[in-house]
Write a structure and sequence with these properties.
With 245 residues, the chain is an alpha+beta fold. The chain has 8 helices and 8 strands. Helix 6 (176-194) packs across helix 7 (207-217). It is elongated and about 85 Å long.
């Protein structure tokens, strides 16, 4: 039969609270510009998402879920989960032993205060007839390969909004025939600027340089910034495009 002293010691040990430390961030998750949902970036919407995950004893994160997303319907929730999954924690400890726990964090999505500068008018050399013809042949292929709506990330929107926004895009942006005409002018101008008689089998410039100079060469053919601004006006007038505070 145990002694009274032994029983008292048992009760004392069982009543001791364990020493615990909550999980903290080792690598705190931060949204990068490349994490911004494509359509939200075009209409310059901002948002924030609260994400909850399980912090594993290894410090890795599991079962991340967007608990709240404002504004909803722009894809911020899915992107925020991917952002948080890149993070890593110092796990919760119980008496010095790592243990699983839940952790929450708020991921803001903020866009620069000013839209990108509009490219200036074309001031380069005028292309020759041969350069224009070569550019026309290239533009036919380029326009046919370019999915018209791919730039907008419409798959991030709910189906009902997607249908409305698709109508607006059809109205505001060039169709394939107009895109072919714009591509022809821009490509011919670039050939003249670079000093090539015709378009080579592969792009004559790296992608970033080509895109930047192509935008400058086509700036007077279509005002993309104005179209984006009108798309934003329509979307924000009909749907929420800023988080409630």
């Amino acid at each position: 039969m145990p002694s009274i002293t032994a029983l008292l010691m048992t009760f004392a040990v069982s009543g001791v609270d364990p020493e615990m430390a909550n999980a903290t961030w080792l690598n705190a998750p931060v949204a990068r510009p490349t994490d911004y949902p494509r359509f939200a970036s075009i209409v310059r919407a901002e948002g924030h998402v609260v994400v909850q995950c399980e912090s594993l004893p290894t410090g890795a994160l599991s079962a991340c879920t967007a608990m709240s997303e404002k504004p909803a319907g722009l894809g911020f929730g899915d992107e925020a989960v991917r952002v948080v999954e890149r993070g890593r924690t110092v796990p919760r400890t119980v008496d010095g032993t790592p243990a699983a726990s839940r952790i929450q964090t708020r991921i803001p999505f903020r866009i620069s205060s000013e839209p990108p500068p509009k490219p200036g008018p074309w001031i380069g050399p005028e292309p020759t007839a041969g350069q224009r013809e070569s550019a026309r042949r290239w533009a036919i292929q380029a326009a046919s390969r370019m999915p018209r709506f791919a730039r907008f990330g419409l798959e991030e929107l709910p189906a009902d909004r997607r249908a409305v926004v698709t109508e607006w895009i059809t109205e505001l942006y060039p169709d394939r025939q107009k895109a072919q005409e714009i591509f022809t002018v821009a490509a011919a101008r670039l050939l003249a600027e670079i000093g090539l008689a015709e378009m080579p089998p592969t792009r004559p410039l790296d992608e970033g340089t080509w895109n930047r100079r192509f935008a400058a060469a086509s700036a007077d053919q279509f005002d993309g910034a104005a179209a984006d601004a009108e798309l934003r006006r329509r979307y924000c007038a009909r749907y929420e495009c800023a988080p409630s505070r």
